[in-house]
Amino acid sequence: MSLLRQDVTTHDWVIFAPERVRRPHDWKKSEHDSEAPGASQEGCPFCPGNESRTGPEIYAVRGGSARDTPGWSVRVVANNFPALRIEEDHRRSEQRLLFRAMGGCGAHEVIIESPDHERSLADQPVDQVERLLQTLRFRYIDLLEDHRFQAIVIFRNHGELAGTSLRHPHCQLIATPVVPQLLRIKHQVATEFFDQTGDCLYCRLLLEELREPDRVVVENAEFAAIVPFASRLPFEVWILPKHHQASFAGVDPQHLGPLAEILQSVLLRLHRGLDNPAYNLTFNTAPRGDENKAYFLWHVQILPRLTTSAGFELGSGMSINTVLPEVAAKFLRNVAI
Amino acid sequence: MSLLRQDVTTHDWVIFAPERVRRPHDWKKSEHDSEAPGASQEGCPFCPGNESRTGPEIYAVRGGSARDTPGWSVRVVANNFPALRIEEDHRRSEQRLLFRAMGGCGAHEVIIESPDHERSLADQPVDQVERLLQTLRFRYIDLLEDHRFQAIVIFRNHGELAGTSLRHPHCQLIATPVVPQLLRIKHQVATEFFDQTGDCLYCRLLLEELREPDRVVVENAEFAAIVPFASRLPFEVWILPKHHQASFAGVDPQHLGPLAEILQSVLLRLHRGLDNPAYNLTFNTAPRGDENKAYFLWHVQILPRLTTSAGFELGSGMSINTVLPEVAAKFLRNVAI
């Protein structure tokens, strides 16, 4: 059973999921497994043939085979150690001034990217990446039907330094019953910009970046990948759509092909140029109710984990980046793929 | 030469310090040293006898020996690979709407905690910890004299997972020419609370925690150490003063003894209870101009690095914590020290 508590000093919510402590990579060094489960194909719960080892199948792209059997190309299951659950209460259980809490209501799904245990997203054929994106969009839209969920966070962890606990390539999705403060802050900043200029901050930013393309990594008709001007991390890349759309729910299904193409191109450049670095990938998208706003643009962030955040970063929230974005962008542009 | 750039989507500033890429733990895996420099005592720039290998000595606690020679008990030097420098320009060099930048003006100092290469802070005698805290306070107050510096971040990295690059125990201090957004947000939240209730949010929080001491780890006459109600990390501990004071600059020097005592007690509990975990320690204190405000309380945060933040945390800013604060506090209370 999980719950949420609000940090009264920042207004941020924290998810407490004590049951997840049974997972690998947890707090007590002596309890660490020497090898993550699923490191080998045989024991992997995400490999075809092992369907019974996952949570119930929520969705799959398959050619006619039965549910919870092999024959799928993308498969969505409930996380076995969920941070949040649809069964939990979403009402605020405690309403004391300094100690606000609520039930751990939400959803936590795993999207298994392909039956292939070893092939990472960078090496998948573009049409398989597109099937994955179609699945993510489908799950995103489906979960929005539950009005208790305020935000849906899609993410991908690649490599141990990025927090992966299972090797078989997968994405995850967590639907939260509160709007994360970071999202609120980004929306406040973008709203203020819109009120002052009449423009979507992100669309305007993309226009400027394309005009002087020092920080552009790659682009196609629908998307551009840039290393942002004030990237927090070395080789951080954002993929932005060229057509305004606040929510990933509103993306034109026709654009998922071009998104797959540019995403794969960026991941391959990172993989080849930086020796398969660990990275996190996240979708930034509008919270419930802001899907049709003129002031936010959904986008994908790719965050390589080449450095360790330390006391300065944790204490101040500021980052120290050792690679200039123009240098990073040029490097990635020049990787042969 | 370093510089700062503002992220227009969050208003946060990012420090770019391309020269720091020569440090260990930098971005390209193949450039990683197999062993951090200073892993052995012989090559350690912070050990007595090697004073010439550090930046110029800024301050030292010594019994009469000459500057930049052995005989010190705490020594402060400029960081050899500084994120910010006092020589840089602090004016905003670029004022384009979407691309704000400024020179990397600031200070970056290293506070060598003792001549002992191996003895970590948890194992130091309390009077040595007190000398360290006196030194930190002295440097903090001295740097505030430079009116270009808006905030001073004191921090400590313990262990590789916490970003340490040199083994010899040391603290660091970075003075920034901008107020970090995280600090602004905390101040906004605390100001709003003060406007509504007339109380300092942190003082009120501490009172409540002491009334029902489930989350208290240890306390003395001047300070209390608690695991906060909505801690972001397992076994996170805050040390809060019992007397209101917004800035570390204003701490009564008589209180540094009790602070040393409680700090050492907390670090020893972590060390013994959790098998010497990596952790970051940071001082939260008011930015320039807010030193005498009634609504903020300086405090120390100790952030164990037992888990890896992943895509959900980076994408949403929210945390998933697997250990309930009450469980963590009880565990730490019961560690025999």
TrEMBL record, chains A, B:
Keyword Transferase: yes
Database matches in InterPro entries: ADP-glucose_phosphorylase, GalP_UDPtransf1, GalP_Utransf_C, GalP_Utransf_N, HIT-like_sf
Keywords: Carbohydrate metabolism, Metal-binding, Nucleotidyltransferase, Transferase, Zinc
Gene3D superfamilies recorded: HIT-like (3.30.428.10)
Annotated spans, Disordered: 24-50
Any one biological process term the GO annotation gives: galactose metabolic process
Protein name according to UniProt: Galactose-1-phosphate uridylyltransferase
Annotated organism of origin: Caulifigura coniformis
